[in-house]
Structure formats: C-alpha cells, structure tokens
Amino acid sequence: MKKVKVLIGNYGSGKSELALNFATQAAARGEKTELIDLDMVNTYFRLTERGKMVEQKEIRLVSPNFACGGIETLSLPAEVASAFVLDWDTVIFDVGGDDAGSTALGRYHKDFMELEPGSLEVLNVVNIRRPLASTLEKITILQEKMQIHSRLQITGMVNNTNLATMTSVNELRDGYELLKEVSEQTGIPVAYTTGKKEFLDAFLAENPDPKYVGTPIAIDMFMHRDWDSFIKYGLNTTNPKKEIY
Amino acid sequence: MALTLMKGSEAIAEAAIRAGARYFFGYPITPQTEIPEYMSARMPEVGGCFLQAESEVAAINMVYGAGGTGARVITSSSSPGVSLKQEGISYCAGANVPCVIINVMRGGPGLGNIQASQGDYFQGTKGGGNGDYHLLTFAPSSVQEFIDLMMVAYDKAEYYRIPVLFLADGIIAQMMEPVELPEMVDFKIDPEKKPWACTGWQPGDDPEKRGIINSIYIDTESLAVHNDELQAMYKTVIENEQQWEEFNCEGADYIITAFGTVARIAKSAITELKAQGINVGLIRPITVWPFPYDAIKKVVAQDSVKAVLDVELNEGQMLEDVKLAIGGAKDVDFFGHCGSQMPTTDEIVAKILSMKEGK
User: Fold this and answer.
1) DSSP states of B277-340
2) Domain check: are B173 and B60 in the same one?
3) At which of B156, B180, B204 does a domain end?
4) CB contact under 8 A, B175 and A236
5) Mean of the pLDDT values across residues B58-70?
6) Is the ipTM of this complex over 0.90?
7) For testing the chain A interface, which of B5, B111, B169 should be mutated: the one with the most A CBs within 10 Å?
8) Do B30 and A72 touch (CB under 8 A)?
C-alpha cells in the first residue's frame, strides 16, 4: 500500500527537516520515494535547496515552479498529480507554514479522499520552543485552522521540539508534557517524537508514557545551518559559484 | 530566562513590542514580511494596533501621525519600500518625531532581488530624503544584538527626538537562532515628559500646552533657527551615541572594517588567518550614523597596522566613511559583492593574503 505523509505545522517547526529525514529513511529501506515541496508561502529555507542531495539519494523531487529562483510568487506544478497517479511506496508532502501554507492542500482534496483507507497520515509538526506554538491554546487554535484550510483531518502530532544548535533533552521533555495535554484535549494522538539521536535516547531513557511518544525517530540535520555551516555553504544555493549541499 | 527559537524578523517584532511599541504601520515586502505577519498576531494581544497600510507612503505618514502623539511607533520594510518612505522619514526628522524604522536590506538598485544586501548604507546614513537631517542608525550583526539595541532605541529616539533607523541585511531577518528576550517595558505616554506631543488640546486650553507637529517654517529666519536646533541635537548625538566593536585589534597587522552580518563572517576569517600566523583585527561600527570616525582612526594609527580592508555586501559604501576616518594615513583596500552574494570566509582570507603579498 502506498504510504502518504503530509507534513503541516507552524513556521519553523521543522517540517522540511522531517520531510528530508522521512524521505531519506524510506529510500534507504529501498522504497520508491517521492518528495513534494508544496511550500507556497516562504521563498527561503525550502527543501528544494537540498535538491541535489535529494536526487543523489534516488528520491524524486517535485518543486513549485521558480522555487529558489529568488522569485516571490510560487505556483503549483502539474507534477504534484504524480503523487496520486504513479506507483510509489512512499510519498511525502512538505507543506508551507501555518494555515496559510496548508491552504495549498485543499486543491488536492479529491485525490486525498480517493487514497486507500489507512494510507494517509496528516501530521502536525510541533516545536514548542517556537513562540507561536508555545502554549496549549496556540497549538490547538492553529491545529483547527490548518484542518479547515487543508480540508484534511490531522491524524497525529509530531513532537519535534528543539532549539537548533542549543538543543538538549529538556526540549523533547517539555514538548512531551505539552503535547500530552493537547492530545488529551483534542483526541489527536502523538504519532512521532523526533530529534537528534543523543537527545532522543536521553529522553526515552526517562521512560515517558509511550502513548504520548508515538514512534521515536532519530533524525539527521539536513536543512538547518548553524552560523559555521552557513558561512561555508551560504544561503543562496542558486548561486552557481557555490557548492550545493 | 528561557531561550526561544526565533527567526530574526519575529525577534525584531517581539523586541519592539517589549520595548513599548504599540503601533505598527507597514506594507509587506520580502524579505521582512514576517515582521508585519508577527505584528498582526501579536499587537492585538498587547492592546496595540497593527495596520496594513495601502502603501509604504501611507505607512510612514501614519508613523508620523502616531509618533506625534508621543506613542511608541514602528514601521518596517525592505529597500525598495524604504525608498518610498523617504519623504515621510524626512518629515519625521524635520518635525522631531521619535519613531523606529526598520530596513531589512535586499538587492538593488530598483526592485533588485530578494536576497540579502547592504546596499542602502548611503541611503540610511547620508539622508535618503530631502534636507539636512540624520537618523540615529544602528547596524546590528546578530539577532540578539538587534533585540538588545531595540530595547534602548525608543529611549534614545525620545531623548533626542530623532527617528531611529535599523539597517539590517536579509540574513538577520531570515535566520533562526535561539535568543533571550528581555522583559516587557511598562511604557505609557506621559504628557509631562513629552510637552511637544499632540495629546488632545482643545480650544480654551492653555495655548502654551498645544503640541504642534510640523516641519514647515515659511519665513527664512524661523527655518534657520529650526535647522540650528536640529544641528545642535545632531552634534550631541555624535558626541554621545557612537557605538562600535573592536575584535583582535591590538597590535594587528591588518584591520578589517565591516558592519552587520558581514562583520560576523570577517570574524571567522580573522580566526582562520590567526591560525596561519597572520594577525588581523576587526572594527565594526554598531552605529553607522553617528559613524565612529575617531575609533577607526585610532585603531588604524597603530604602528603595527600595514593596511585596511573594508568588506561589504555592496560595491563599497561604508568604504567612503572608512577613508574619511583614516584620512590617507594608511592604504585602504575593498572587497565586496553586490547582487546579494555573501562574501565568504575563504574570499576574505584570500583577499588579506593577496594584500600581504602586495598584489
């Protein structure tokens, strides 16, 4: 059965980072994988910036027209249809931030509804260290708005709480506590807990309730660039003089 | 105090609110649209006002009006949008209206592109609008420094009655870093402290207490008096408000001058050069107006300093002030890019090495 993961959530919650991780892990298992950059909002920090790496891992990448061309108006490519029509093992949608970004999914409502029951996962990626996703109220309000705009039901949350280079086990623990409350209130389960291996292991060693951890997945950093890697590789990957990751 | 993971734009907006800003007027433009976006969500929470104006021209005139009441007001834009605001900025400066203006610089001239740039140095420091005026102009080099400067910006703007400009490149607005936010300042408009502000004078009230916000002085003499007062104020700003950072300057063979994020890149180059046995210092203006001429002159005057390299994300704008500061005492070379290609550590290292070899 085709597995389709749709990643939505607050800006900067780590959707692209997770999309790259889910895709590379699926490809590494030998699955035929397609990755769809459906961010129609933000022109920067898109997974298409890591396009070369994605293709090297034999993942098919679909990007909006003009993505990374320094152009402010993005448009949906017709190739998104390939996600529904072609025979993939895994398809991952990396969607733009907030309800504004989720809106792009509404266009594919009919296609999503025609997927085999049980094949679709709609995941709300949450990083509670982001200011607009830091409380129960903020998370639930955004969750509700994203469901309306995307015309999809969120099937699970992802605890991806981190502080970039300053992350510690505290981030996952605090994320766990808050998402537990959100889950109890909304009935939406925590589907995954994600983080760098060292922090994830430390968190799991504290024996959290598996019900609010979901499937733990260790991730690598593909998207986020700290200052040192930024000045090595740069930000503007369309610059022909610079190496693309 | 807890750290939070914030994009530069969000941190700038939150810091302004915590510094007392309760009015945001603006018009979206990449790469700073996250500032109005954040403001639109946050201002109602603190009882403030977010208003998306119909244009940049409208937005800056709303700043002029709201600032004239003594409120803490902010607008933000990016290069082409800030060009549109210049008339209103000149009016604010002419009428001594304290306010904060943010320019997240992008590639130019004209529409340019949406990548980072430092191409508006001339516009920010030499007066983009008409008349003899200056803006207290900060050029932060990190998200945290932006926050910290924002927390004092309104106090300074109100003390001198001068508009404050932040010149930030797109990198600062777009990058995400863990930051520490200060506590909310308890700010209220105090008519006693701001006798100039328009706070609701009515016919019959004491005429002496009528605030008038104005930049028109029809007769020659009163305009001259007004300009003399402005210039006297600028003189005290020059005397008191210059800020800069010196890094590894003592006994350095070469001095790099740079501002904003480019200075942060230069620091990495300096560390690499040190490993190769070459001693290079950095002097980074934090205020680009008033420009720290004397500080640069003093550092460069050291016997050890052979030459100066100015690095910018433009074709050499601050370079002119650096040359003025040095007054021909030492050679000044330049390295930079326009078209929004960040100078890299390797490029700066290579440039210093070529200067050393006398190329």
Assistant:
1) T--EEEEEESEEES--HHHHHHHHTSTT--EEEEEESSSSSHHHHHHHHHTTSSEEEEEE--TT
2) yes
3) B180
4) no
5) 97
6) no
7) B5
8) yes
